[in-house]
TrEMBL record:
Keywords: DNA-binding, Phosphoprotein, Transcription, Transcription regulation, Two-component regulatory system. PANTHER family: REGULATOR OF RPOS (PTHR48111), STAGE 0 SPORULATION PROTEIN A HOMOLOG (PTHR48111:SF32). This is Response regulator transcription factor. It comes from the Bacteria.
């Protein structure tokens, strides 16, 4: 049974969301604010964290940033904010996905299932270790190193890097990367890919991820 931490300051949304996830077979730990949630997080292990952004005592951005210093568990942000900059800030701090209120619980379930699937090792393609230059990616253990040093990536960053490394030299448009890294249908700004690529280049300290002007991105040999 997968364990999910749900952080939401609206008691009605918290109750309904928790009850819905429980009915779908998940173990749920609810929390009404960021400060309380961080204390819970430090004392327990979670497979997924769902959090609101605008919360008392500690907002979702701060909570996300703190969690990312200690865990790479998938983080799904819930928010009433619709501004593009707000969404990008969440991704830059390490969030894996984003859903705006009001939302369909069927859509929420699909997002949860998708994020949890990405936590499980993928050994079906026969490619366990991928290496390009000084970058190494293990598709079974989800470990990434650059120059021999371990690199912590978010789930989306890992998925994008894995796709690029499995297809060196092939150009992927932003839409293609979105389709591969987000395996469900919903509208999302392609600028999110720009942010993830920027983060990958910085974390890996590499110039192997090339921008192909007017087309997209590719992994250089």
């Amino acid at each position: 049974m997968k364990k999910i931490l749900v952080v939401e300051d609206d008691p009605n949304i918290l109750e309904v969301t928790s009850a819905f996830l429980l009915s779908e077979g998940y173990e749920v730990v609810p929390s009404e604010n960021g400060m309380e949630a961080y204390g819970i997080f430090e004392s327990q292990t979670f497979d997924l964290i769902i959090m609101d952004i605008m919360m008392p005592k500690m907002d979702g951005y701060t909570l996300c940033e703190l969690i990312r210093t200690k865990s790479d568990a998938p983080i799904l942000m819930l928010t009433a904010l619709g501004e593009e900059d707000s969404e990008l800030k969440g991704f830059e701090l390490g969030a894996d996905d984003y859903i705006q209120k009001p939302f369909s619980y069927k859509v929420l379930l699909k997002r949860v299932e998708s994020l949890l699937r990405r936590v499980s090792p993928d050994t079906t393609d026969g490619s366990i270790l991928l290496e390009i230059a000084e970058i190494s990616l293990n598709t079974e253990t989800f470990q990434v190193t650059a120059g021999g040093d371990p690199v912590e990536l978010t789930r989306k960053e890992f998925d994008i890097l894995r796709l690029l490394m499995k297809n060196p030299g092939r150009v992927f448009t932003r839409e293609m990367l979105l389709d591969q890294a987000w395996d469900y249908e919903y509208i999302v700004d392609t600028k999110i890919i720009n942010t993830h690529i920027k983060n990958l280049r910085k974390k890996l300290a590499t110039d192997k991820i090339q921008t192909v002007r007017g087309a997209g991105y590719k992994m250089d040999y």
